[in-house]
Amino acid sequence: MAADPFVTVERRDDGVALVRLDRPRANALSASVLAQLAAVAEGLTAEPPGAVVLWGGERIFAAGADISELGGGGPEQVAANFHTALGALAALPRVTVAAVNGYALGGGLELALACDLRVCAEDARFGLPEVLLGVIPGGGGTQRLPRLIGAARAKELIFTGRQVRADEALAIGLVNRVVPPAQVFPTALEMAAGLAAGAVVAQALGKAAVDRGLETTLEEGLTIERDQFLAATRTEDATRGVTSFLEHGPGRATFVGR
């Protein structure tokens, strides 16, 4: 890790890995922040936890890219840094939950989009304001946002750069849950802990089936689903789940992550 630890990870007893983003004052996603995030994601991929929470703190999730790095020959490197870090985060073989307080703008929203689930505060704001600088999103926003909320809604946000409030974000499927600001962090941890106690291998296979299926045709996606389903049936957790269901009914199985 770099001398200044802008991104830290804490592995908790409940199986959740807490990834904390802390770069004063607005969690701008500089090259060093993105490099640290990529390193953390790679470490979590090598030794997967039960689930992951990504939190930017009580005041702000992330304001976006470090604009000072766009000058000169910087844009190509900035885009590469985002794609490397966010790609590593998105590829984590566990469910990731973004805990969003305050603003998630530009690269900050792209960071949240690289997670599987999003919990946000009632006063949170989301947006891709790059067009107000005369550019477009370069960290995955033009691709991940339409896959999540649909092309028409995504285009409007990209074309106008307007910010979305929490209630609208929930209505259009941009976030999964809206809670009071003080409850964002504990709610995300609770969600992640519940997932970590579940069939994490099946979750990983389901995540891969969805993500890979979105990149291809329906026919090919169904083939991916079949293969992931068959892989899931061969796990110890599947044996435990089926046996528990037959003996005790649904929802009583204890999983071991194998």
CATH top level of the largest domain is Alpha Beta
Using the coordinates shown, work out and report the CATH topology of the largest domain: 2-enoyl-CoA Hydratase, Chain A, domain 1
Question: Beta-strand level of the residues, as a percent range?
Answer: 5-15%
Helices, by number, come to 10
Give the second-level CATH assignment, the architecture of the largest domain. Alpha-Beta Complex
In round numbers, the mean pLDDT is 94
Query: Biggest sheet: strands, sense, closure?
Result: 6 strands, mixed
Question: How many distinct beta strands?
Answer: 9
List keywords for this structure.
three-stranded mixed beta sheet; Lyase 2-enoyl-coa Hydratase, Chain  A, domain 2; 258 residues; single chain; alpha/beta; 2 domains; 2-enoyl-CoA Hydratase, Chain A, domain 1
